[in-house]
Design goal:
454 residues, alpha+beta, 2 domains, 13 helices, 22 strands, 36% helix, 24% strand
Amino acid sequence: MRGNMKESYKRYSSFVEKNKERIYSAIDYIWKHPEVGYKEWKTNAYLEREFENLGYTIKCAGDIPGFLAEFDTGRPGPKVGVMGELDALMCATHPEADKETKAVHACGHLIQTAAMLGVAAAFKEKGAADGLCGSIRFLAVPAEETIDLAFREGLVEQGVIQYMAGKIEFLRRGFFDGVDMAMMFHADTREDVLFKFIDGCDGCITKHFEYKGVAAHAGGAPHKGVNALYAASLGLQACNSLRETFQEKDYVRWHPIVTQAGVAANAIPAVASLDSYVRAATLDTMIATNKKINRAIAASAAALGAHVTVTDKPGNLPFHSDVTMSKCIEHIITDMFGEGQIAYAGWDTQSSDVGDISSLMPVVQHLCMGAVGTQHGEDYYIADQEKAAVNPAKVMTCLIYELLKDNGAFGRQVIENYTPLYQSKEEYFAAINKIAMQKELVTYEGEEKAVLHF
C-alpha cells in the first residue's frame, strides 16, 4: 500500500489545504452558535449553505436538523460515508456557554462537521476524482449526545422521531441506505501525539426510574407515609453493591442521578426519580447487567412498600473500529506526519451512536488532537484548529482515495473483511426494539406478598 503513495497523499492533502480557511470559518461559526440535539437549526442552515456553495445538492432530513449530500465519480463502486455530528452539549459553568440554553461545544463535535466540510471541498477540486470509482455520502447528523431527554420524549410523542439518537433516526429514515462503510474523527486533548486510536467503546441502555410512595406530614404523621426518597436511596445502595460482580473485561459502567426527591421538607416524599445508563462492551452484558439493576431497584421498592416503574430505552450499541481501515489510516498518518504520532488507547468506556452504525457496516472513528481542557467541562475549547479539523480532513480524504482507487479494490476488501453484527437494518431494529420496556417492577398481593418483575 505504501509504494508511491506519498505523492498521492501530498496531492489530496493539498486539496484540503486549499480549503483551510473554509474549515476554520466553519469552526468559528459553529462554536459561536451551539445547539443541542434535534435543535441544531442554525448549524444545519450554515452547513447547507456551505455545501450548496460548493455545488452539492442537499437532501434534508426535513422535520429534524441534518442532511446528506453526495459526490459521485460517475463510475460504479463502493459508497463511503463521511459523518459529522451537529450537536453541542450543556455546561452552564462554561464561560462561553449560551446564556439561555447553556449549550456549548465542550465535546468537540464542531471539528467533525468542519472536517467533513473540508473533505467535501477537497473532492470538488480539479482532478480529485481522477482514477476513482464509487461515491461519497456526507452525513450531517443531529443529536449524538444523550441529553435534553424531556424534549426528545416530546418529539417521540408528536411522531417526529422514533429514536433519541440522531444516527439511529437517520438509519431509520434511510439516510444510510446504500452506504458500504463510514468514517469520522473525534476531538481529544493529548499534546504528545496528533492522533489516538481506540479499538471501540461501550454501548448503553438509558434508564428512568419513577418511585411512588405515599405523602404524609413529616413531623406529625410520618408513619402514615411511604418514603419514595428512602426507597430510591436504598435502590442506589443495592445497585452500588452489585459493582463487585462486574468483571473488568466487560467494562461495565453504572452512573445514576436523582432528578426528583420530594418537593417540601415537611412532607414525606411521594415521588422520587432516577436517571442512569447501563454501559458495557457487549450487548449481552448490557442486557444481563440491566436485569441485575432492575432487580435491585425492584427489591428496594418492595422493602419499603413503594411502587417503582422503569423505562428502558436503547441507547447505543457497542462500537468496534474497523481493523482494515484502521491499518490503512496508520500508514497514511505515518507517511503524512511521520513516526510516533499515534497513541493506542485500547477500549473506551464512553458510548456513541456510531456503534449502531458499526453493527451494520465497517466504521472507523479515531481521535485527533487540538482540543484542551476537560471533555464536557467548563475549560474545554479548540486550541489548534489545524490539528483538530484540517489534519483529520486530510487523513479522511487520503483514506477515501485508497478505498475508491483501482476500481475500489481496497474498499471491496474492507467490506469482505467485515462481519456485521446484523445482516440488515430490519434485523438491527428488531434487536434494539426488544430493549425498550416500561414496566411496573413491583406489584402487591394483599399485605403479605410483593411480586418483583425485572
